[in-house]
Specification:
single chain, alpha/beta, Rossmann fold, 4-stranded parallel β-sheet, globular
């Protein structure tokens, strides 16, 4: 997936700035920009950064209920949104594989902000291991890849947004880039980002503190969306239900998953509201462990409140404590 992102950036823009910011010739620096966010998590972050700033327009490209766009294809409506936008904010790390040459054709002057650019300790997104586990544990010191375009043999895990601590870094990156695009609003972008980032960091601290009190730190997840949250909480993801997002395991793979869960003594399987939970429940029953849902906030209502992400993550905190137990 990282290769796809690099190809996208080469096709679209030259990236001289640390945040891969390509300045639009069509946008006047003293005028608030028209911003297009690629995904719901990016949309919510941008809305928090730009709140209260007159004239800034923020639009979401893919539907709010779409989730992670692993298999998404651009629609004519998307191309229309791209054509009228002045700034495109993306997650990066290969999540937006659907972007490419058509974007440049739709809007050659579009300014691109890659929110993940420059963030260190990016985790690998490896899909093959016994029982659909991951190639490295997500607690302690991870064997991550750095977001410098060189990731060895592993693609990068793009799901930074599902960790409040990483979401705070995305917020700072986006605000810094918007301040370059629109210097007249720099102070407001920075102030809003600091306020939102502080709230996210406090939430991350609460989750990390809970991680120390849980009765077990070994879990199974739907796919790799919670790897960063697990790392930040000190949890170990011993296996995933779907090695490939959206693709259910075969009967033989389910058997191996059950064996891995029992061998690793996982405490629970956590499914996601963005995917059917039947397979996860079946595996949990066969392995005789609890199951519950965690929401990565990859989707949400069309007009979500600005604190929607915080509401979802606090609900996740309660679910983790109730399911795994704490002391």
């Amino acid at each position: 997936m990282l290769t796809a992102t690099l190809r996208l950036l080469l096709l679209l823009f030259v990236c001289p700035a640390a945040l891969c910011l390509s300045q639009s010739k069509a946008h006047a620096a003293d005028r608030p920009p028209r911003i297009l966010a690629s995904t719901f998590p990016m949309y919510q972050i941008v809305r928090n950064i730009t709140q209260g700033i007159d004239g800034v327009e923020v639009e979401l490209m893919i539907p709010a209920q779409m989730g992670c766009p692993h298999d998404y294809a651009l629609t004519p409506q998307d191309m229309t949104k791209l054509a009228r936008a002045e700034v495109l904010v993306i997650n990066g790390l290969g999540l937006e594989e659907f972007l490419g040459a058509p974007v440049r054709k739709a809007n050659p002057h579009l300014t691109l902000i890659d929110s993940s650019r420059g963030i260190a300790q990016i985790l690998p997104y490896t899909e093959e291991k016994e029982g659909h586990g991951h190639a490295s544990k997500t607690h302690g010191q991870p064997h991550g890849v750095h977001n410098d375009g060189h990731d060895g043999h592993h693609d990068a895990n793009p799901h930074l947004f599902a960790s409040p601590r990483m979401a705070a870094l995305l917020t700072a990156n986006i605000a810094n880039a918007l301040a370059q695009v629109h210097p007249a609003g720099a102070a407001a972008y920075t102030a809003n980002a600091q306020t939102y980032g502080q709230r996210l960091t406090r939430l991350a601290d609460e989750l990390a503190e809970l991680g120390k009190r849980l009765h077990t730190n070994r879990i199974v997840t739907q796919h790799g969306v919670f790897d960063y949250l697990a790392r930040d909480m000190g949890l170990e993801v011993v296996a995933v239900v779907q090695a490939h997002a959206g693709q259910d395991p075969s009967a033989s793979e389910i058997l191996r998953l059950v064996q891995t869960i029992k061998a690793k003594k996982a405490g629970a399987i956590f499914t996601e509201p963005q995917y059917p939970e039947a397979v996860g429940r079946t595996i949990a029953k066969e392995a005789a462990i609890a199951t519950a849902r965690l929401d990565p906030a990859a989707t949400g209502p069309e007009q979500a409140p600005l604190d929607y992400y915080e509401q979802v993550m606090r609900a996740n905190l309660n679910t983790l404590e109730q399911t795994l137990g704490s002391h």
